[in-house]
Design a protein that fits this description.
Elements lengths: L6 E5 L2 E5 L5 E4 L2 E4 L5 E7 L5 H12 L2 E4 H10 L5 H9 L6 H15 L3 E5 L5 H11 L5 E6 L2 H11 L8 H24 L3 E5 L4 H12 L2 H6 L1
Parallel strand pairs: 5-7, 5-8, 6-7, 8-9
Antiparallel strand pairs: 1-2, 3-4
The structure holds uridine-5'-diphosphate and magnesium ion (MG).
Amino acid sequence: MGTVVETPVKEADATVTVKKPTVVFVLGKHFVLALSSVFVVILSGGPGSGKGTQCANIVEHFGYTHLSAGDLLRAEIKSGSENGTMIQNMIKEGKIVPSEVTIKLLQKAMEESGNDKFLIDGFPRNEENRAAFEAVTKIEPEFVLFFDCSEEEMERRILNRNQGREDDNVETIRKRFKVFLESSLPVVQYYEAKGKVRKIDAAKPVAEVFDAVKAVFTPKDEKAAA
Ligand code: UDP
Ligand code: MG
């Protein structure tokens, strides 16, 4: 169910890769579109490491759709959904919301975007998130952009950004750091073992970090031509 393999078709001298068709499979009671033919980049890094800021730059330069799992969850709270209170309590505590909830929101946003290139920011946050996402969507990310930044610098940025977030206080920030180290870093290590992690020094000023980000997103042949 839902596993469609990319088929190389030989036409004269050229090998043409046929785009995988979108398939429909069942998740719970709903029919959802499988997104197995999309191009996904995961952004990982501690809270305040600059993922959201750099996503905006990547969207502008490279035409991706930005999906912030945290923003989708906050929008879900605002929408007055039945899960809202549960999500709000978990965010206040810096805890990870059940995979099923976050995955559904991500899938819906992907389907509604009309795009096939996505930056998934702040998800998967633990191994269970990762395994569930891969099992449900059949999506294997192209690479993981890892924002390497010290806790000291991240804490300073969060306390300065004043976005009015309920979880941007010292107490919750420390909990989020702990969850990041204990639960999210193992996901980075999983992808590292697959050779998929591109680590950048995220402690520098925004423009310098974006130079490093651009280098990761620019195809090698274009780099050689430049
Ligand atoms: N969160 C979650 N699952 C996700 C993404 C976020 O449970 O996949 C919750 C979690 O409580 C987290 C909070 O939302 O601490 C804020 O996440 P966000 O990614 O917005 O924070 P950031 O790391 O960007 O500061
Ligand atoms: Mg963020």
